[in-house]
Design goal:
Subcellular location: Nucleus
Strand content: 15-25%
Organism: Arabidopsis thaliana x Arabidopsis arenosa
Protein name: WRKY domain
GO cellular component, one term: nucleus
Strand order of the largest sheet: 4-5-6-7-3-9-8
Number of strands: 9
CATH topology of the domain at 190-323: N-terminal domain of TfIIb
InterPro entries: WRKY_dom, WRKY_dom_sf, WRKY_plant
CATH superfamily of the domain at 190-323: WRKY domain
Order of helices and strands: HHEHHEHHEEEEEHHEEH
Structural class: alpha+beta
Number of helices: 9
DNA sequence: CGCTTTTGACCCGCGC
DNA sequence: GCGCGGGTCAAAAGCG
């Protein structure tokens, strides 16, 4: 009897213990969740700071490149005067081989049919530099920008009613680019990116739609053709091809054209770097190859790149399979304080290897806490030293 | 049902 | 002018 009571007492005791254990566990988990939340907030803050620094750096480097080329200095002055109260209110984005003025005129014509107010807005947009710099005032907020683009997209949708019309518009855009390049004697600038991964669908921040596949004579491995699907009329295309049978894990991705829509953060760095390269290429004799290399070193500090012209296509080749340090690194790049890594989709990123499946260009940016002013100052010094 | 991929046909530039 | 080859189109199939 006593024995039974004792057993039941211990059973009750065990039950209480189990409950209190559960409560303790719950508390501990809550504390952990809270801690993770706090860390998450801190990381968010850090990320936004990094993004801000990166944006202003990119903006300033682009501006310096523009001044270096000496192109459209009058227009720059005009913009500077407009924004002299706040230098940082100017967003400069680079565009490959396409005059913004031409696009804007076209947009203007389209929008003209919709409303005169929108024309005024599109005129505001038309502050462009000679070799494809696009300058936008940040006075209108990003939201306004988006609204404008939605309006334009709607206007275009009204004009473009069938698939055939889409094709016509595409051809017109293509024709514009071709006409422009006929004047310079060069075709559209191409940017080749060689990357090691088993999956050819590199995550470069854009959405692509495959429209063709072809087996070239020179290479028995098929080449895939993709079109940017982030905007209905985006003229950007890319080709993806394996780099040969011995090197089946490497892919050569060739980009051609300019996006006619805002790019996600992951894609913007790549676009800025490659556009800078293309702009420098297109500026031709005014730019020495060494200054071009110097510029590219800042965008792709740890990777091998080369510049060539094949079939009248100025081509920038970025080799992500060949680490570049230290021989091609800019002399003054802060090696000691910087690190470089590629972002991979797996939660615990392994070192880059041929077995990695996706490649994110957002990782191309340096993780070093670079001061934009100091980098800019060093960059200016370096450029002036080369002249 | 709508979007994407596949794939054969077609177009067009280039070299001979 | 012709043939070749790279690039694009578009109908059909696949997929979520």
């Amino acid at each position: 009897m006593i024995k039974e009571e004792t057993v039941s007492y211990f059973q009750t005791f065990d039950g209480v213990m189990a409950e209190s254990d559960k409560e303790e566990e719950l508390d501990a988990t809550k504390a952990k969740v809270e801690k993770v939340r706090e860390e998450n907030e801190k990381l968010k803050l850090l990320l936004s700071t990094i993004l801000n620094n990166y944006n202003s750096l990119q903006m300033q480097v682009s501006k310096v490149l523009g001044q270096q080329q000496g192109a459209s200095s009058m227009e720059l002055d005009h913009i500077d005067r407009q924004d002299e109260n706040n230098d940082y209110d100017v967003d400069i984005s680079l565009r490959l081989g396409r005059s913004e003025q031409k696009i804007s005129k076209k947009e203007e014509n389209k929008v003209d049919k919709i409303s005169t107010k929108d024309v005024e807005e599109s005129k505001d947009k038309r502050s462009a530099l000679g070799f494809g710099f696009q300058i936008q005032s940040y006075e209108a907020s990003k939201l306004d920008d988006l609204c404008r683009q939605v309006k334009l997209a709607n206007a275009e949708n009204k004009c473009v009613s069938s698939r055939k019309d889409v094709k016509t518009v595409r051809n017109e855009n293509h024709q514009d680019v071709l006409e422009e390049h006929e004047q310079t004697g060069l075709k559209k600038t191409r940017v080749c990116v060689k990357a090691s991964c088993e999956d050819p669908s590199i995550n470069d921040g854009c959405q692509w739609r495959k429209y063709g596949q072809k087996t070239a004579k020179t290479n028995p491995l098929p080449r895939a053709y993709y079109r940017c699907s982030m905007s209905s009329n985006c003229p950007v295309r890319k080709q993806v091809q394996r780099c040969g049978e011995e090197e089946t894990s490497a892919f050569m991705t060739t980009y051609e054209g300019n996006h006619d829509h805002p790019l996600p953060m992951e894609a913007s760095h790549m676009a800025a770097g490659t556009s800078a390269a293309a702009s420098l290429l297109q500026s031709g004799s005014s730019s020495s190859s060494s200054s071009t290399s110097a510029s590219l070193s800042y965008f792709f500090p740890f990777h091998h790149f080369s510049i060539s012209t094949t079939n009248s296509h100025p081509t920038v080749t970025l080799d992500l399979t060949r680490p570049n340090y230290p021989n091609q690194l800019p002399d003054d790049y802060p090696l000691s304080s910087s690190s470089f890594s590629l972002n991979f989709s797996s939660p615990d990123p392994p070192p880059p290897s041929s077995h990695d499946h996706t490649l994110n260009f957002s990782g191309l940016r340096t993780q070093a806490p670079l001061s934009t002013d100091s980098l800019l100052a060093r960059y200016r010094t370096r450029l002036s030293g080369q002249q």
